[in-house]
Amino acid sequence: MSDTIGDRISFEGNCCTIKYIGPVKGVEGQWLGVEWDDPSRGKHNGTYLGENYFKCRKENSGSFIRQNRPRDIKKTFVDAFIDKYGDRNVEEYINFDIKSKNTNINPKIQEIYHPKNIQKKLPKRYIVTLDHMAISELGNIGEIKKKCSDILEIDLSGNLLNWKTVILIIKELPNLSSLKLNYNQLGTSELILSNNFKFSNLKTLILNKTYLKIKEIKKLCISFENLEELQISHNLLTLKTNNDFHFSDTIPHLKKIFLNDNKISCFETVTRIFGKLEKLVFLSLASNQINTINIIPNTFISLKYLDISKNNISEQTSLNNLNILHSLVSLRFTDNPLLKEFKSNPSTFIIPRLRNVMIINGTKITQEERQNAELYYLSTIEKEIKSGKISNYSDLIKEHPQWRELQKKYEKENPIFNTEKNLTEKIIENKLIELYIIFEKEIIKKKFISSMNIRSFRSFCAKFFKINPFDFTISYLEGSYKIIYIDDDSKLLSFYNLTSGETIYIKQNKPENYTQQ
Q1: Is 0.70 surpassed by the pTM of this model?
Q2: Backbone angles phi, psi at 284, to 5 degrees
């Protein structure tokens, strides 16, 4: 039995790659050191009794197997295709000649296996699925040559392929637009990494659980320059590369990328590597280890759909930063620590912070839901200000960058959210002012919070001086002579720029004289 390092073999359907051939210390015979596609079948990293024989890409995915152990029979691509979809020589395939009209053969069997009926299994152009069929070579392509031009999508997941065989296969599929190679431990190939192979028709490439490194993936993509969708989930990727490493010069037409279930911890790295792809509209980073979201300006200019669920995001600044993505309309953000207090209704927390997002966690936001969420958000900010949790303007804008925009949006509908127009460093809403109030010969001195509305102030004066709340005017002097009337009950005290020490004049209206006619 002739084995070579890098060969793909399988035992009872479990695929692995040969990493070592030879003796093993402490045991007799010839052994194969293999790395299993399924890491759970492994026992070590290629080290036995203190001696290292090979290295594994995946932690503890290696083991030793006797070289003479019976293994699964490999198939060619052509054989697998014929096994599943039928042969042009159908009568030979089922070991009888339909044309002979053998009376010993059940008529129903003859009908089922008639070539015309087998061809009906497949439409003119079709998706071919040949996953987990122990395919290792191309085979005699002439047997299915005519069918190859009709194949648009093919699934070769979980086979025993290397890049050389993959290239031989797709060269025979001129109209192929989607290639799925999940669970194939392909490694690197000098042939494909030399950039001598080009396949411009391919639009979708799926490489989940292939455990390729990001630099290998980029070199691979050079051969598929017109890719629009790339799936590289479950590959242990960290994306730690040089600062000048990016994909925009390799696959500039990419629209979708899936990076789920990797070991990515830095969103800024994702931005640097993929942010310059001007046509990218979909990015999935679910189930990674991202803690914060920092976006480099002028990146992801076309991104509409972002999935960053099941990460470690705990600061609302990260959510606020997503407003930099002006094209973003759909966000998945479930299972992040930031939403721990909003598990029952996370949208209430997310909606007011992202002005353009219309779909959250797969659900479309109605206009009423947005308004309710934004008003609730403003009320929580007001509480933070009144409690002193936020004590200056810079902290307010840092924590709630949407505050000014929303406060302006709801100024008429909800006066309680009004604030002084020339707000600078101090937040007037949380500031007390001491006023002198004069009514006829009576004068009082009292402190008021500047966020108090005039309606409440009028009510206080009416109650204190025991007069009709609708039967007096409120005014103060600006300078020495100019009388300013406080007559808009919807405004706040802060609107009139009142400061401590100001004098307020309460003047009861004169009763009108009526003449009986």
Answers
A1: yes
A2: -115, 120
* Alpha-carbon span 210 to 232, nearest angstrom: 8
Closest C-alpha to 485, from 469, 512, 505: 505
Tell me the per-residue pLDDT of 471-491, one tens digit each, with 9 for 90 and over: 899 999 887 678 889 988 888
> For residues 431 and 450, is the Cβ–Cβ distance under 8 A?
yes
Helix (H, G, I), strand (E, B) or coil at 248: coil
Closest CA to 54 of 31, 29, 35, 36: 35
CATH topology of domain 8-66: SH3 type barrels. (2.30.30)
* Strands across the sheet containing 14-24: 8-11, 14-24, 27-36, 62-66
pLDDT attached to residue 516: 37
Average pLDDT over residues 223-251: 93
Q: Where are the beta strands (DSSP E) in 106-234?
A: 126-129, 135-137, 151-155, 178-180, 204-206, 229-231
Residue bearing tokens 């009986």: 516
Look up tokens 């669920």; give the residue: 309
- Summarised one tens digit per residue, pLDDT across range 168-199 is 999 999 999 999 999 998 876 555 555 578 89
d(CA 507, CA 472): 5
Residues 6+ apart with CB under 8 A from 367: none
CATH fold of 431-508, please? Ubiquitin-like (UB roll) (3.10.20)
Condensed to tens digits (0 to 9), the pLDDT of residues 290-340 reads: 999 999 889 999 999 999 999 999 999 999 999 999 999 999 999 999 998
For the chain, which residues make up each domain, given as ranges?
A: 8-66, 125-364, 372-417, 431-508
Contact 23, 30 (CB under 8 A): yes
- pLDDT at site 70: 94
Longest CA pairwise span in the chain (Å): 129
Nearest to 248 by CA among 278, 224, 206, 226: 278
Strands 256-258 and 282-284: parallel
Structure tokens at 29: 């015979």
Handedness of CA 462, 468, 473, 477 (dihedral sign): negative
Q: How many whole angstroms separate alpha carbon 15 and alpha carbon 442? A: 95
Token digits of residue 175? 């109209």
Domain made up of 125-364: CATH architecture: Alpha-Beta Horseshoe (3.80)
